[in-house]
Amino acid sequence: MNDTFAEDVLKGLSSTPKFLSSKYFYDEKGDELFQQIMNMPEYYLTRSEYEIFSLQKGQLLKLFQRNDQPFRLIEFGAGDGLKTKVLLEHFLEKKAVFKYTPIDISGNVLELLSNDLQQNYPSLSVDPMEGEYFQMLEKLSHTDSTRKIILFLGSNIGNFGEQEALKFLGQLSTKLNPQDSLLIGFDLKKDPEVVLNAYNDHSGITRAFNLNLLQRINNELDANFDLTRFKHAPFYDPMTGATKSYLVSMQKQDVMIASLGKMICFEQWEPIYMEVSQKYDLDMIKNLADSSGFKVDCNFFDCKHYFVDSLWSL
Ligand code: AVI
């Protein structure tokens, strides 16, 4: 049993209001469901960022390369690297001198990605690192002074609360050198219906993605959540840009988490707060950069202005 997972679940479900951390969505089944989410017609985010990279890879390379200097592309939480491959392929074609360093806490994810890249791009220099982002950056800085370009893509920053995002980016800024840059993906505020549909798809995949965390608690902590008694309820607030997802208990019920020896009691219609997916506007992005020690150098938009990859430096 994973102790941190157990502690976090206990803390979240004993709190008022109840919450669970969306970082725990990603067990094997959760990874598979997220893969399906990225392919859904409603989930525009992945396609938007893919379009940005496909159409603006030349400009990105110019900015990364700076007078043909070598650079190291460091990706936080690379996943299957589908979008990044568009960049890698172009950079290789243009004979850019660079290394690619995906960092992930999952050795399994890194192995799959590295094998795939080696097979498809034998000339690519892949240097994966398994571990926590900042620890790995620290480790790198002892051995390598090449210009670093950090990629934090896919609106992953949107899953951080406001203070958490500030803290994360503030910490990141202290780990970088003046010549380094960060390319960070933000999902933008847009037609509220478009946003909400991305988190409330017709086929019920996002619903299953949220419910899977209750299933994970059943599997790993010997709990007895009845998934049919919880309703997936996402909301988008166009004022703040927060999309928040809840699982709402449709009836008064008690759930036993046997491995923790803990009974969790739900009132009828009581929610569990599952995830925030923050949507930004350009002022919010500039403020976030300013308050975390960065400045915005350049913004790359898709044609619909649904998404932006923002290039920051110190
Ligand atoms: C990983 N992250 C950026 C996704 C998002 O859009 O917030 C996670 C997700 N949750 C529901 N659908 C997708």
From TrEMBL:
Domain Histidine-specific methyltransferase SAM-dependent: 5-312
Root EC class: transferase
Origin: domain of life: Bacteria
Gene Ontology MF: a single term: L-histidine N(alpha)-methyltransferase activity
Assigned keywords, A-Z: Methyltransferase, Transferase
GO biological process: methylation
Its EC number(s): 2.1.1.44
Protein name (database record): L-histidine N(Alpha)-methyltransferase
Organism: Splendidivirga corallicola
